[in-house]
Prior knowledge:
By secondary structure, this protein is α/β, with parallel strands linked by helices. Helix content is 37%, strand content 18%. It has a seven-stranded antiparallel beta sheet.
Amino acid sequence: MAATRISPLLTDLYQLTMLAGYHAEGMAETPAVFDLFFRDIPYRGGYAVFAGLDPALRALEGLRFEADEIDHLASLNIFTADFLDWLAGFSFEGDVDAPEEGTPVFGNQPLLTVRAPLAQAQLVETLLLNIINFQTLVATKAARISRAAGGAPVLEFGLRRAQGPDGAMSVARAACIGGVRSTSNVLAGKVFDLPVKGTHAHSWVMAFDSELEAFRAYARSFPDHCILLVDTVDTLKSGLPNAITVARELRQQGHELFGIRLDSGDLAWLSRQARAMLDEAGFPEVRIVASNELDEEVIHTIRDEGGCIDIYGVGTRLATCAGEGGGALGGVYKLVAIDGRPKMKLTSDISKATLPGPKTVWRLYRPDGSYLQDVITVAGEEPQQGETVYDPVNPAHFRMLDEPFEARPLARTRMQGGRRTNPSPTLSQLADRCQTELDRLPEGTLRMTNPHRYKVSISDSLHQLREQLRRSMMR
């Protein structure tokens, strides 16, 4: 896929004013480390799914100021000519560490760590948060929906309700990582090599003199890929009987009706009735597709009530990341070291205090391959069995690592010197990885309501470093 350039002006003004200040103070080239992380898991769930790394790295590789962009900044009359000349030669030449996309992630652990000269690391804050926050939220929502569907295919139908064309493309990409592997978005299908799926609208039926005539016309055009929308007039008294009539006609011509779509009403009850009517008519292989404001909660209810849905089409509530505790990931980007010295944000709210210094996130695996917990250590340290570790939000809570485990670092270097270290996997590979890794989570973590809280701890050394800095800052 050809990279689409993102202008460095897609940022908050204060990023540029800070850059100008760093430049004026001679600090622009000071080595710095920033962490990007979130605090609270969205949807009050048990996990999030990391996404957005590939587009973020693409954006960093192409980050340059064009002449017209420098001219626009000059027109604001707030920047010096010397600073604007410096911006004209700007490029990102830092390092980025991150997990693989599709990895389950949790609060307070770095999703990205950026090591770069201070001005470079500062400028990319807004850009990285814009990409990672949204795509991680979409991938998380998609994973929840996909798991709720219990293995039934889920199609992404959210293009018309997404936040603009670029939002629609990001939704299709991130949703695939989370497990929603098909889309109605034809451009996304081309760009991301995704299967494109769809049916027809109510307007197709309304354009003809009768529903049966509309169904026959659609079947003539697509005899081997025909899904009929059966609720324009009356689902059970008109739509289903007419669909069955067309299914018989297709079979006589050597074709088979692929499916029918339910887009209104009590989907659990209607799907049961539709399944019975189709089976009785001799069409047990005809799929039943459901749409209409679906999300993980509605899908769970449909299945719990014995609904007979084969394929789910999810649009608005996936594309807009709707749901209690959703809407935004809330990721932040914080300075954790400068010129080799650890830094932390200290507030009266301990839950918002940051973890200082360069760090490593370790995922601990039980002997059977399942996740035990995550431990965040200072860089260069590895968790040891028998070690005491602390809750990053409430240091009064601590525990001992008394179970046997294998520790593996969660992140690795994805960009070095402003260039990616390796090509990105395909979206299909990332989606496979996501499903495999979610299955490793402890029992209960995948529950939609009142999930098990996966443990993320900090090592004793990191706990001591934070306490030391806290005391120093208080003095």
